[in-house]
Amino acid sequence: MIARANHRIAYPCRFQLIAAMNPCKCGGSGPGIACKRGQRCATDYQARLSGPFLDRIDLNIEVPAVSAADLSLPTAREGSAEVRARVIAARQRQEARFDALGVKGLRINAHASGHLLDQIATPEPDGAALLRSAAETLGLSARGFHRVLRVARTLADLDGIETVRRIHIAEALSYRGESLRQRQAA
Fold first, then answer.
1. Full residue range of the structural domain in which residue 128 is found
2. For 40-62, what is each residue's pLDDT tens digit?
3. What is the CATH number of the domain that holds 113?
4. Is the pTM of the predicted complex or chain greater than 0.85?
5. 3-class SS at 46?
């Protein structure tokens, strides 16, 4: 929805946003590298992204720089082909779930409404307790709460499990990332 002056127009769209940013505006403050301005540089730079904008991002992952020692580590146990197979299976589970519920036009968890999400992603009691506690501690908005549920449901689908467990909630919360820790500190 674009609103300017006295006009509004809505364009139908679905997109996937993938973004990256340095920890501070000078690009420093990585392992073994100290920014000349210190922590204030990173804090000021990251504060340019609003809370409501960050709240709309499902996965927020801090990726440290790769060191020469990292390059000599053994290869990953799971390759791209195996990951692709798990993702395809998870998407098929999601599509079958929506078909069984009689929901037309939905194929993946990312497109589920909050009400529908409450039906398909209700966590086990331990997971629900963790989510309630995290929502209070981190000050999650309703949108943030549902984003965590949506990611947890997808993680359970990737594991081939029908119920959302505490481990899925914990992992989904970990993907809320640095932005929540910074907001909590502020």
1. 89-185
2. 888 888 888 888 888 888 888 88
3. 1.10.8
4. no
5. helix
